[in-house]
Design a protein that fits this description.
Oligomer: single chain
Helix content: 40-55%
Strand content: 5-15%
Strand order of the largest sheet: 6-5-7-8
Number of strands: 8
Order of helices and strands: EEHHEEHEHHHEEHHHHHEHHHHH
Shape: globular
Distance between the termini: 41 Å
Largest sheet: 4 strands, parallel
Number of helices: 16
């Protein structure tokens, strides 16, 4: 109801204007106060018409948005169905059938039963840490060793490529022993859950791909014995050449196939004795497993690769029970602790948010002042933002990283009950 104060020289009247005012009441008011009521009634009528038109326009706009959203969802569902059909036909091994989905975002287990999870599923499951080098991977792996000792939990050996090949070849008797391990970790560990018979969860930590490439480049200059550093000498190539040589490492690990690393299956790989973007020769003998995976993946068509990227990003929160970020290791530890009920943050004090200033773009540029002009260009990450070859090499990992950031933000919001 609306109240209006009507004032005349002799009288002050407060009249209650009802939404459905009778005609004779309106006429009576007009006769008593013609100079005040008429403009008021006209103003109210005009305002009402404006509100009515505005409401109608808003309703029509909402209707159009709903229609567009429905169309967009239908299109995305069709695209997703096409991608899934393509993957099942051409890359069935990346469909994981025995892993618990993300604790915070998926709301269900990634199993054929497709039932809602509860916290006990994660607490009681085997856990598999997918190690990402130069991304906090060693800190988490060391943390798992400490937790395993303190809690007397059985932990398998670090899952390198060669160890994974042996694991996947185990007979039933050996596999039954493997099921007794609670904790697994390694850079070739993805897919291990499908080799286990109980509940199983993956988790990992990822990093900005360009920062990761720069970090591994610096690391491999002094750690030539590291498997990741063994194919070419980082001291003899530029940063750009290193990025093209290394490629998208997270993408490679999510597509891992142990049979590619088996010497008996060398026919699956097309060898090239030079690394992309460099004239440095590569010996084909005794190539590490990760590089064989990369060589095999270089045979992918553009269509293959795009379908794989789409499938992985669509299913990232179904692959991993929890995802951490290198720039937020401390919060990542709290997330892992909550999901698996293991004391990551309490036992492992080295899991702090880390940022190495030596790896900044500006410092990397300054450290190369004495190099020839061409090398200066190829060692400055600032020059790569429009470099099509570099962008293509890192595109899969950037797509995965951006999706991981979204998931991490949701995990944090739900765990700490706050929105940033």
């Amino acid at each position: 109801m609306t109240f209006v104060h009507l004032v005349s020289p002799l009288i002050y009247v407060q009249i209650e204007i009802l939404p459905m005012m009778r005609v004779y009441e309106s006429v009576l008011l007009f006769l008593l106060f013609p100079t005040t009521v008429l403009p008021f009634i006209w103003q109210q009528s005009s305002s009402s018409n404006k509100i009515s038109r505005t409401q109608k326009e808003v309703a029509e706009a909402l209707k159009m948005l709903t229609v567009q959203q429905t169309k967009q969802e239908l299109f995305e569902n069709q695209q997703r169905a096409q991608t899934e059909a393509y993957i099942l036909k051409n890359f069935p091994w990346i469909v994981k059938n025995n892993s618990l989905g993300n604790y915070f975002t998926s709301g269900r287990t990634h199993t054929s039963a497709d039932v809602l999870h509860d916290g006990k599923d994660y607490t009681n499951s085997a856990i598999v840490f997918l190690h990402q080098s130069q991304s906090g991977g060693s800190a988490i792996s060391d943390c798992l060793e400490t937790i395993a000792k303190k809690k007397a939990l059985p932990k398998s050996e670090f899952m390198s490529g060669s160890k994974r090949v042996k694991w996947d070849k185990m007979d039933e008797k050996a596999r039954a022993l493997g099921d007794k391990f609670k904790i697994h970790s390694g850079d070739s560990a993805f897919g291990l859950c499908d080799q286990l018979r109980g509940k199983c969860s993956y988790f990992t930590v990822v990093r900005n791909p360009m920062e990761h490439a720069l970090s591994t480049y610096q690391h491999c200059k002094t750690s030539l014995g590291d498997e990741r550093c063994s194919v070419i000498n980082a001291n003899k190539v530029t940063l750009r050449e290193w990025i093209l040589h290394q490629g998208s490492t997270v993408f490679q690990k999510l597509l891992f196939r142990s049979d590619i690393c088996d010497k008996r299956n060398s026919h699956l790989i097309t060898y090239n004795n030079t690394t992309p973007g460099s004239k440095l020769k590569i010996k084909n003998e005794n190539l590490p497993c990760w590089y064989k995976q990369k060589l095999h993946q270089q045979q992918l068509t553009k269509t293959d690769r795009q379908h794989l990227i789409n499938y992985i990003t669509d299913n990232l929160d179904e692959y991993f029970a929890a995802i951490g970020l290198y720039d937020e290791l401390e919060n990542s530890a709290h997330i892992f602790e909550h999901v698996f009920q293991l004391p990551f943050s309490r036992v492992c004090k080295n899991l702090k948010n880390t940022r190495n200033d030596e790896l900044s773009v500006g410092n990397n540029r300054a450290n190369n002042n004495n190099k020839p002009r061409d090398d200066l260009y190829e060692n400055d990450p600032a020059n790569f933002q429009y470099d099509s070859e570099v962008l293509d090499a890192l595109e899969p990992d950037y797509q995965i990283y951006w999706k991981a950031q979204q998931i991490f933000k949701q995990q944090k919001q739900r765990l700490f009950n706050k929105i940033e």
